[in-house]
User: What shape does this take?
Amino acid sequence: MIIASGVATALGVVGVVIILAAIMVVSVYNSIQRGRIRAENAFSQIDVQLKRRCDLIPNLIETAKGYLTHERETLTAVIMARQAAVDGIRARAANPTDATATENLGAAAKGLDTALSRLMAVAEAYPDLKANQNMLAVQEELSTTENRIAFARQGYNDAVMRFNELLAVFPNNFIAGLFAFHPMAMFQANEGDRAVPSVRF
Assistant: This one.
């Protein structure tokens, strides 16, 4: 009788431990999923602003090309850099957890920044272009968009940092490994990206 009672108590304790462990696993899994979703939502804000900037580029090119007849190479560089950025946005959207896709998008955004800066420097030599109302409007939109990108990038990187911290601590790291969660890549700013590109006319 005492042995049967002891076995029942032991089974009850084991059952409680299993239930508590299952509750912990579900809780940790859900918190990691929430962190991933928050990071993806934060990236969508960058995505919106990067697309907005890419959408502004054709207006910029169209306005500038009438004035920059001898600067086709510069205009072509901007068009190619824009396409690389659009391709980077698509690749990152297709595989949001791929760190390489995020890094490639960062590099494409840097290339577009460089091409735009070069275009703006060339445009300085054309007073009529500097005074063109369309160019001034696009310049203002680009400047606003660059500020929004910087703000969204900070929000994304903060969300990624919190997500990666969730994955790094015990017992989360064990549960993350069981469910194949991987750290996410930050959207890194290159040294030249830390300031808004000059687009003044």
